[in-house]
Amino acid sequence: MISWLVNMNRRSNPMFKILGEVPRGFQDVGTPKIDTDLISAFLPFLPASVIVLVIEHVAISKSFGRVNNYTINPSQEFVAIGVTNVIAPFLGGYPSTGSFSRTAIKSKAGVRTPFAGVITGLIVLLAIYALTAVFFYIPSASLAAVIIHAMGDLITLPNTVYQFWRVSPLEVVIFFVGVFVTVFSSIENGIYATVCISAVLLLWRILRGQGNFLGKVKVHSVVGDHVIGEDHRQMVGEYGTFNAGDNAARNVFLPIDHADGSNPEVSLDSPYPGIFIYRFSEGFNYPNASHSLEYLTDYIFERTRRTNLEAYGRLGDRPWNDPGPSRKAKKAAAQREAEENKPTLKAIILDFSSVNNVDLTSIQQLIDVRNQLDRYAAPDTVNWRIACINNRWTKRALVAASFGYPSDSGDSLQHRWKNIFSVAEIGGAESAAAVAEQEANEKELSSHAKTARSADEETGKSGAYEDIDPVSSSGMHQEQRKQAGPRRRGVVVHGLNRPLFHVDLTSALQSAIANSEGRGEAAPGSKSPDTSSD
After folding, report:
1. Burial (0-12, 13-18, 19+ Cβ within 10 Å), 146
2. How far apart are alpha carbons 47 and 192 in whole angstroms?
3. 3-state helix, strand, coil in the chain (%, to 5)
4. Three-state DSSP state, 214
5. Where is this region: Disordered (predicted)?
6. How many whole angstroms separate alpha carbon 104 and alpha carbon 94?
7. Of 59-73, 127-141, 222-236, 353-367, which gets the smallest average pLDDT?
8. Fewer beta carbons below 10 Å: N end or C end of the chain?
């Protein structure tokens, strides 16, 4: 109103800058004309424009979605942008994307749903056909003030930047690089700089990602001054009065180097001499498989000794760059290894809890490492066990690579494997599921027994398998079973035909230790560590 009163007689020479005449309606409706000059004009700016279009739209939608407590689907937003930019040229429109200023103004006005866009469109149609004369006297400063006020909340404050620094210092450095390049060069160069540096940082983290070797420690759950059991209402004792044999104790596995930020004063025990637990940290795919497995083998070579220094059957089997120790060197090496008391390699437990999927290259490299360590441990074989598999396709790939069941040692001795399974209850003994499971287990066990006997008869081996009395093996007689009440039925979490796949690290470690001792690899008279978990 003030602008109209001041400038109504000064339309050609207003006292201050005003919006001026606004064209009425759609002036350029029709098929857009595209020629080589136009293409050559916008082609150099096309990559930056697309990046800005996509990033700005998604950033706006997610930012205001968090403010107004709703979620967005990026794919749906991209479809909306595509449809808009396909139709806009036929109406004389510019390439468009989400706008920080218009979105901020709507948010200030109380808009909460996308239906506001429909109302905005109707108002725009009404304005460009019926209200263009009113827009003539709107001061440009008023429009700028509205936009500046709406955009004020989107400015990154110093305390927010400091919070970003605490979360990820490298990304704050990238942020400032983008700001300085944009201010002193151009927006396009700022976008290219930040995108390229972010891509390099991401690739570096993936390529250099390596796992952690885990150690075992026994912990208790403490509430106030009391130690609790499985139930938080079950008080086992006061803090400081419990001992290592308490039933409330449980085993947890932490990185030996305390890379997870755990208390460095916590003493982590080795799981077992010659048994290693390795957890992947950044997945297990082609980019980081080589680095992760190199770290795995180097760590094992430093902490174990070769099972047999004369393991090469022929002179040509020794690697070309390994001259081999002389007799004097062999004697000195044997004496040094005896002094260091390094164990031989017995088993490797891989924790796949952070692995979502694998690819052909990573599995092939894992096979190569398995063969390398089998030669290192010859004439024995390394017991590979895998725990915490989260993806059935990962499990399928490992099975295809011959992981999950014992490998043939290739010698004349038939090792007896002690398979320890994790069993989950499914109901009482009278349930239909229990009966079906019992019949299936009996058929499968009978089939395995027949196959084993046939193989022994063909090869002339004996003593590899034994008939086990279920009553005597469990240590419970029929009378004791009756007194104990009805049996509860259960099923194995992983298949019976994949005994080297485990649901957790505790069962994997228990099984690895049992097999190492059963195969006579444990030191005579050594006491196996406690691997129980409550």
Report:
1. middle
2. 9
3. 50, 10, 40
4. strand
5. 438-489, 512-534
6. 21
7. 222-236
8. N
- Residue 292: is it exposed, middle or buried by C-beta count within 10 angstroms (0-12/13-18/19+)? buried
Handedness of CA 57, 60, 62, 64 (dihedral sign): negative
CA 188 to CA 207: how far, in whole Å? 28
CA distance 435 to 441: 10
Phi then psi dihedrals of residue 103, to 5 deg = -65, -40
d(CA 392, CA 519): 31
Residues 18, 4: Cα–Cα separation, whole Å:
10
Least confident piece of the model among 19-28, 198-207, 253-262, 373-382: 19-28
Order of all β-strands in the sheet with 347-351 = 250-255, 212-219, 275-279, 347-351, 383-387, 501-502
Q: 345 with 376: CB under 8 angstroms? A: yes
Is 215 in a helix, a strand, or coil? strand
CB atoms < 10 A from the CB of 188, how many?
17
pLDDT tens-digit readout, 61-96:
877 777 777 778 888 888 888 888 888 888 877 777
Structure tokens at 436: 């079906």
Kindly report, residue by residue over 231-258, the tens digit of the pLDDT.
Answer: 666 666 666 655 544 566 788 898 888 8
SS3 14: coil
Hey, what are 92's tokens? 């004389």
Residue 500: pLDDT above 80?
A: yes
Beta pairing partners, 347: 275, 383
Cβ atoms of 227 and 235 closer than 8 Å: yes
Beta carbons within 10 angstroms of residue 221's beta carbon: 14
* DSSP β-ladder status, 275-279 and 212-219: antiparallel
pLDDT for the residue numbered 352: 92
Backbone angles phi and psi of 276, in degrees to 5? -125, 140
> Which string of b and e fits 91-101 if b means at least 16 CB within 10 Å?
eeeeeebbebe
Q: Mean of the pLDDT values across residues 272-291?
A: 88
224/67 Cα distance (integer angstroms): 38
How does DSSP classify residue 267? Answer: P
Question: Nearest 5°: CA angle at 16, between 12 and 20?
Answer: 50
Q: Evaluate if pTM is beyond 0.85.
A: no
**CA pair distance 448, 442, nearest whole angstrom:** 10
Residue 380 · residue 344 · CB < 8 Å: yes
Q: Give, as one character, the DSSP assignment of residue 181.
A: H
CA distances from 256 to 244, 277, 354, 528, 532 (A): 20, 10, 18, 20, 20
Backbone φ and ψ for 12, nearest 5 degrees, come out as -80, -20
Q: Are 192 and 49 in contact (CB under 8 A)?
A: no
H or E element at residue 446:
helix 432-459
One-letter amino acid for residue 215 of the chain:
G
Higher-confidence position of 221 and 290: 290
Q: Which tokens is 346 given?
A: 């017995």
